[in-house]
Design a protein that fits this description.
Layout: E1 3-11, E2 20-24, E3 29-33, H1 39-54, E4 62-67, E5 86-92, H2 101-105, H3 109-122, E6 139-143, E7 149-153, H4 166-172, H5 176-182, H6 186-198, H7 200-209, H8 224-229
Parallel strand pairs: 1-4
Antiparallel strand pairs: 1-2, 2-3, 3-5, 4-5, 6-7
Helix pairs in contact: 1-7, 3-5, 4-5
Length: 243
């Protein structure tokens, strides 16, 4: 069942989608988005988040929430224009700081490789660094009381990109160089691909359980993302081709 939103607090100052920070009936804070994303992008968020969780990648908790119409009445101001009543994708709020190149370099190599390989599989070109020392897209840096930290993956709405470009991905992804190095390690490469193959059932379940209004189907009435994800079953081309 969707978690009910009790209060809309503010809109995020950063990010392409500028989601809304909301308090839910479970007492948790969530960043919430629906109208600001196309149906396909909401579906991509849902499926990608399930896959990241199944693979043990770090990301905030997520769920579907319901936004009551009374909370987004137009009379309450234009700032609520991109939040519609009804179902929305929600990502749990976490205390975090700006990701920087220096912090991203602290992430263990094995985890960097997994993140880059995950985005390769999902055709997500958006996790890239902007010019300068800060401004790494679609990542958060969470610091714990001990002073250490970890990277968190956020915002998968641009996954399953039909215009995915191999050279562009390798050149711009924050961990593109780590993926290139993976090419020299057949054992690790096949181990990762095997994890992706075993996660295909998770993708199918996510497609089946997402809100009906978000669902993406192909001519065979199947989730349109599944055929793209099934590329991982082709051991001869998966790591060398975007098709």
């Amino acid at each position: 069942m969707p978690v009910l939103i009790d209060e809309v607090l503010r809109r995020a100052a950063r990010g392409r989608t500028a989601p809304y920070l909301c308090r839910a009936e479970d007492g948790q804070l969530y960043f919430v988005k629906n109208r600001v994303l196309a149906r396909r992008e909401l579906a991509a968020e849902w499926v990608s988040s399930h896959l990241a969780r199944a693979l043990g990648l770090p990301l905030p908790a997520f769920c579907v929430v319901e936004v009551p119409a009374a909370l987004v009445d137009p009379a309450m101001g234009d700032w609520l224009a991109d939040l519609a009543p009804g179902l929305a994708f929600a990502s749990r709020y976490v205390e975090s700081t700006e990701p920087t190149r220096a912090r991203m370099a602290q992430v263990p190599v094995a985890e960097r490789v997994r993140i880059a390989a995950f985005d390769w599989w999902l055709r997500n070109m958006q996790r890239r660094a902007a010019p300068g020392p800060v401004g790494i897209r679609n990542l958060l840096w969470q610091t714990d009381p001990s002073g250490s930290g970890r990277v968190l993956l956020i915002d998968h709405s641009r996954a399953f990109d039909p215009r995915f470009d191999v050279s562009g991905f390798l050149a711009t992804h924050v961990y593109g160089a780590d993926l290139v190095r993976l090419a020299a390690d057949f054992i690790d490469r096949e181990r990762l691909r095997g994890e992706f193959v075993r996660a295909l059932d998770v993708a199918a379940t996510a497609c089946a359980t997402m809100p009906a209004a978000w669902r993406q189907v192909d001519s065979r009435d199947e989730c349109a993302f599944l055929a793209q994800l099934a590329r991982c079953q082709a051991d001869d081309v998966f790591w060398t081709s975007a098709s």
